[in-house]
Amino acid sequence: MATRRIDLTRITEEPQRLPVRDVVRELVDLLGRKTVAYLAGLNSVREVTSWLTPDGTAPRDSREAVLRSALQAARMIADLESRDSAAAWFVGTNATFDFESPASILRERGTEGRAPVLRAARSFVVGAFAAELAREKIAGHEQ
Length: 143
Hints:
By secondary structure, this protein is mainly α. 71% of the residues lie in helices and 0% in strands. It has one domain (8-142). α2 packs across α3. It is elongated, with a radius of gyration of 16 Å. The protein starts with 7 loop residues before the first helix and ends with a helix. The mean pLDDT is 90.
């Protein structure tokens, strides 16, 4: 059985200490500019592009907090599943949110959406990990 390790510092603490440009850069890498713009409450990617440049603007404080929490959730899923899973999870419908996407929860609820989205990401990862363990156990019995 493959053992996976979770780096809690990387997932929970590091996103809170990173410079905001690094947070945005990694989110763009994981989720894409359009999703980052959507999370930030923007209607275009132009401002996200500005956030990435050394002399560009920075997100508003309330949106910065949302982006930091989004990075926590994205890292959690990407580290234990895949980047594609993280990107799909953010934009896909989610039963936890009455079939709204986690991205729309963060966009609409702002800082109030952070805790529910992080709980939902944790639940997703726990469920995926449990399913993987069950598959491995079944495969072990079939040999």
